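Technical appendix A lists one of the benchmark inputs used to test multi-chain prediction within the project. The record comprises three sequence entries:
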Amino acid sequence: MAERPAPRAGTLARLHTRLQPLADFWRVFRRNRAALLAVYALVAIVLGTPAVVFLLAVEPEAISTDVLARPSRSHPMGTDYLGRDILGRVLHGVNTSLLVGTGVALIGVSIGIGLGSVAGYYGGWVDHLVMRAADALLIVPTFFLILSIAFIFGGRLVFVVLLLGVTTWPQIARIVRAEVLALREEAFVLSARALGVGDAKVMFREILPNTLPPVIAMVALLASSGILTEASLSFLGVGDPNIVSLGQMLTSGLEYATSAWWVPACPGGAIFLLVLLLNLLGDGLNVALNPRLRTLA
Amino acid sequence: MGQMTRRDFLHVAAGAAAVGAAGTRPTSVRAAEPKRGGTLRLLQIEPAVGFNPAMEGTNWPETQRMVYNGLTDYGPTGELVPGVARSWTVSDEADTFTFRLTPGITFHDGKELTSDDVRFTYESIADAKVASPLNVYVANLKAVETPDKHTVTLRFSGPNVLMMPGISPVGILPKHVWAGTDFRKNPALAMPIGTGPFRLKEWQRSSHLVFEANRNYFRKGRPYVDQVIFKVVPDAATGIEAFKNGELDMVLSQGMPGGLPYAQVRQLIDAKPANIVFHEFVQNFNQNLWMNCAAPPFDNAKVRRAISHAINKELIVKALLQGFGRAQHSFLGDLPGHKWAHDASLRSEYSPARANQLLDEAGFPRKGSSRFAVTILATEGFRVKLSEALKAMLAPIGIEASIKSYTWATYIARIRQERDTAGCLWTIFSSRQVDPAFSMDNLSGANVKPGGANYCQWNNPRATQLIDAARSTAVQEKRKGLYMELQRLVFDETPVIPLYSAIGVDMFHKPVEGVFSIDGLTGTLTSIEGVWLNK
Amino acid sequence: MSLHRYVAGRLAQSLFLILLVISLGFFVMRLAPGDPVLYLYGAQNVSAETLDAMRRQWGLDRPLWQQYTAYVGNLLQGNLGYSQLNQQPVARMLARIIPNTLLLMIPSLVLATTIGVLLGILAARRLNSWGDYLVGAVSMVGYSTPPFWLGIVFIVVFASGLRWLPTQGMSTLGSSAQGLARALDVATHMVLPLGVLVWWYLAAFARLTRASMLEESRKPYLMTARMKGLSEAHVIFRHAFRNASRPILTILGLHLGTMFAGTVMTEVVFAWPGMGRLTFNAIIQHDYPVVLGVFVVTGVAVVMANLLIDLLYVLLDPRIRYG
């Protein structure tokens, strides 16, 4: 199914001046104000929430008799059905969501790059095997598979992240494979090979670095979809109650949507914001890293 | 009946031999001439998968009761009233029960109900091949005699104290439909035939059930409505919104796994909507916290006692149940069906200090802030919220709990089948406690083996002896004495920690009249046949 | 390679894969503790012996491999099995429920692609205009919200709050309306779930179309077309969009599974009697044959859809060889 894209115009140039692309990238990226804002916000969240949680010693599981209290000075986001401070829990939940997103993206990307590059570089039966496996994951109603596995074995968060990561690699593998296929025939790769450079070295030194740009753009999107899927699984009852997660907070708070709106609305808003920022970042990266879109930005 | 508060009323209604209690508003029962016609739409959260009373036991009572009648029925205050039997006699030893059937009752297919059908039903329940979940309650059935078409006598080889309150209301099956067939393959599974006020017209699994009035119903003039629809809405919150929006006429507490969405219901009640009526009634069950008493650390009674002092039951009722419940301290809770045997002097105060002291004595000193780790088993939904509360309450006494949640079937398999529960805590409410004998099955040494109902594997010979003794006498005073001793023993040993009992809320829109809500063996019963629409 | 052989090869491969998936599903579900018997009777004071007797009646006591071979044997003969719990053949259960899901999925896909593509083209045409930003913002919001949360918000606002629309279900309970009246009734019930799904899918298509159109818009052939004096609409739809539609189709194929997941949640929230709901219930009830049946049907559907998309490529772009 995959087509070979046209060889890239700037590849050779980029190879020669390794730093130039970074500068180019930044020049384009910074013009996208939404994406730039997303980066600042995400950096603030990534650095900020753990610091706040640590410094204020937020105790997200401490219950109190002050149940379903409206947002107030002492509880800026109110309290939930067990009298727990929602702000503290949202901060913890954001951390969890970031870990989920990162975890899913990292697993998906590592497997995807590994298998995609092997498939593209060696071709033949290796390629065939990898791509059929990717097809298989396409056919599987992955969501249901994860749902039944997690349901039946207890929804440990690590487990859910692992499953999500393992099932998202085909997207990455397809992109990487297509890139590798294209690069394989490029002059610089051919010459490296002609000089007797080994497969592994060619792969790591010459080919992989050039497949990264489109993959990097995917990372943010994978992370955001990981966060959303975690929330969806929580809604259907699969969650790890030992970890404060936004998805579970939202789900367990849904029955209070009409009586104590802040219980679901705060974690719901946090999920929305986080996913939105990641998507904006992903979009920005996509434009800035894709030379064909770059000129338009 | 004068003006009474709900609680007063419940106390009066739950008399000594009460089977259930009612929170009914006398006005709606006494109302003027019922009007006929119309469609009643009700909420069902978990879709029913079956009807046959012998096979489903206490599952989906709300839809079972539409199609089948038992020998007896529960009346508006929980007392037994005639069902297809117009009268009955019970021997002093409670081992012989004679029922006289109302002549001329017909099944939906036109055949008359006779003593043969009653015999067939009870013999099927007792038949090991049928594997009825109710068979433990008729285990000592000796013979069913049918001296004539309308008389049936059940003889047991000893007292059966559960026959009247528990088993006599179970629906009667038509012999000509089920006899000689495989109970798991009979076409009547999908199109049940009973004597009930309604017949099943359409059954779209996991969507809805449509019942139409049985015009040949033996209680003349009933039912009043033409059609009853149970709509399956899997998300309780959406279900309540649909009810508020007028898409459903009625919401029953029964069939809400884990209970009502209490906050939503509380808000609805507080809003005092002019067009909605609420019935609150005490449900016949305790929510219990169980532990594996056969493995450390819960094989030590001091540890179990410590846990019972660490749990703030009042807070659970206030926060999670929004006040729709009451803290309970005895395994035979202060429930309508237990009242006569309940020991009100037992009390386990909330005291983390006492809990800490007990754990120190039990030989579990703190290492840093923690003594030991346990696992709380849970299912999705309400049980997770409850487990979160328990976890937070165990932390201050140095017990680090982690929660694992599963589907209900996997959950119960771990607890009941695999007995894979060392170091675990979990919550299960003992079902429909219309008589102490029901709940006490859960603590009998006979049920300790895997698959048995003694979830906590507490094997106490004295307790088992008392349980058996209380079952083998029909003298109420003697039973009471035995249960008092048993309760005290269970309280001291604490194999299980009673948490709370719940208050059910049945809600319906104003035009609905003639509703009464009680909790019997077969669940929260709201007799739909007497319901009519005042519009 | 001939078209026939290509299609046949793809089908054979896919069937093998589906079988693989079924086996995986079968063992994953069966190796975990818990079964339908415990789902039904676990909370009752049933004796251990009675539980075992029930398992025997349902054939759950046979060795796992025997149950597996029996299942696969039936499957190969086109028999999806029998749900003991629901006392119905799985095929019949699915046949009744699939149309309901399609009723939700097809219109939402059609609407989402049409609106999404139009918005995407609009945004690409007027790059960095307020319209472009608006499209971006709207699709971002839809894309960044868990679908079930969107559903609950819709119910609270439009059904409970404003009382414009019903909260749940597929038709008014007890209504005996027929023909047009019934269609109208169902349509009213469809508005909210459809709204959620369309908004959710829309985002993906709008973003994708915008990106693809941007890529195409710089290609020299468009200049040529424009210089030839062809109308702008002609240029955009006959030339640019025709080429931009390929990645859109690919994504459509790749995301069918994900979209199905979105449908599940929407069905649960709105009590829509569809496949998602059925599967969700079946997983809860440990009703294995039904869950596996859904795996088979969705697997086949996804395979077919992707095959169709591949063939569409050939139609859209005759230069493509299959393989």
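Chain C has a mean pLDDT of 80. The first strand of chain C starts at residue 82 and ends at 83. Comparable benchmark entries are summarised in Table A2.
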